[in-house]
Amino acid sequence: MTAVMPERAGFPAPHAVGRPDNPGLGAPRPGDARLGDPGPGDPRPAGTVRPARIRPVRAVNVLVGVDPVACRPATDPAARAAHLAIRHAVFVEEQGVFEDSDLDAHDTREDVVHVLATHLGRPAGTVRLYPTGRPGEWLGDRLAVLPEFRSAAIGGPLVRFAVETAGARDGLRMRAHVQLPNERFFHRLGWTTDGPVEPYVGHPHIPMSTPLAGPTTPWLAGPRRAA
């Protein structure tokens, strides 16, 4: 079946376009303005081509398919220095959890893992993890994010990286002493509360943990959520 398109006001049928008796969209009519002709009141003669106006385009940084947050072990001197500087800025200068320094004996252990998170290449956050001595058990601490990056979802990637790192090193469960305002954040990441509030480094914390292996592992159970 052949469709017939009737002519409508202002839109000639396709077979009529360009006919001598009906130029339609195919040919100019006498008196039609041409592209570039001066407008009314312009003293320049017809046919004068006006230069095109080019508007400046503002440069915009666009990242396609690139995660701005990267986490890695702070093994080189520069990364280790950045890791320690962030911890000092948060735990000593901002929160006052420690008086002079948050360094302790765990920082010199051979099996400790210092993690540095960067946002678009800039040092942004830290976490530290190490085995507790109990079979398969790891402890995570020194989770810190600089104030200027706290709206950039740095904490979630740091915690997940710590969990994956401990699991890859034959860990079975990770524990942490979590500051009270962060309990809900850890729940969203699949952690469970293990007991009542208790003092840790002189401040109230909540004991929490998460499995590191098996089908119930939070970071294997489904898509990751930004945090």
TrEMBL record:
<dbReference type="InterPro" id="IPR024035">
    <property type="entry name" value="MSMEG_0567_GNAT"/>
</dbReference>
<dbReference type="InterPro" id="IPR000182">
    <property type="entry name" value="GNAT_dom"/>
</dbReference>
<dbReference type="Pfam" id="PF00583">
    <property type="entry name" value="Acetyltransf_1"/>
</dbReference>
<dbReference type="InterPro" id="IPR016181">
    <property type="entry name" value="Acyl_CoA_acyltransferase"/>
</dbReference>
<dbReference type="GO" id="GO:0016747">
    <property type="term" value="F:acyltransferase activity, transferring groups other than amino-acyl groups"/>
</dbReference>
<protein>
    <recommendedName>
        <fullName>N-acetyltransferase domain-containing protein</fullName>
    </recommendedName>
</protein>
<feature type="domain" description="N-acetyltransferase">
    <location>
        <begin position="69"/>
        <end position="213"/>
    </location>
</feature>
<feature type="region of interest" description="Disordered">
    <location>
        <begin position="1"/>
        <end position="51"/>
    </location>
</feature>
